[in-house]
């Protein structure tokens, strides 16, 4: 066999492997009026902006213009609460599976398009009690619930959803129990 067909075959196999591995995760459209409210972070992949968070929660409020007001709260192990405000909007008008999220800070005021992050809803259960949210590059992942704790079977289901979407769940940081938080 000459080298040229062998190189072509190798290139095709490599491209096929890359396209499968690098395909973005599948998303799920949501009813934003049902999605609004409080969500507790059960687990997340490590990220610098949540490095001090032992417990986190997000509060979403649907606005009349279709955007969503966002308040993220983080509780440190010292018991201190930190809070950031922002807004989310559909990346494509009328589609609710992929959102842009931007938080209020000096950088986002100067560079609003650069400061926004991708928030992809990968899964939400039929009762809007649990959800899996991530980033198309799989850099970020959150397992969310309407309650701060879930039973083991629910936890395993959320992990299965994340793994099925190609996320490495071995590095997840789980919500600290209330007993691990110091009284303020």
CATH topology label: Lipocalin
Q: What's the CATH architecture name? A: Beta Barrel
Helix content: 10-25%
Helix and strand sequence: HHEEEEEHEEEHE
Tally of helical runs: 4
Strand order of the largest sheet: 1-2-3-4-5-6-7-8
User: How many domains?
Assistant: 1
By secondary-structure content and strand pairing, the structural class works out as alpha+beta
Principal-axes geometry comes out as globular
This entry's quaternary arrangement is single chain
Number of strands: 9
- CATH C-level: Mainly Beta
Low-confidence stretches: 1-21
Describe the structure.
- With 184 residues, the chain is α+β, with helices and mostly antiparallel strands.
- The protein has a single domain, classed as Lipocalin, CATH 2.40.128.20.
- Helix content is 23%, strand content 33%.
- The protein contains 4 helices and 9 strands, in the order ααβββββαβββαβ.
- It has an 8-stranded antiparallel barrel.
- A hairpin with a 5-residue loop joins strand 6 and strand 7.
- The N terminus is likely disordered.
- Keywords: Cell outer membrane, Lipid-binding, Lipoprotein, Membrane, Palmitate, Signal.
- This is Outer membrane lipoprotein Blc.
- Involved in the storage or transport of lipids necessary for membrane maintenance under stressful conditions. Displays a binding preference for lysophospholipids.
- GO terms for molecular function: lipid binding.
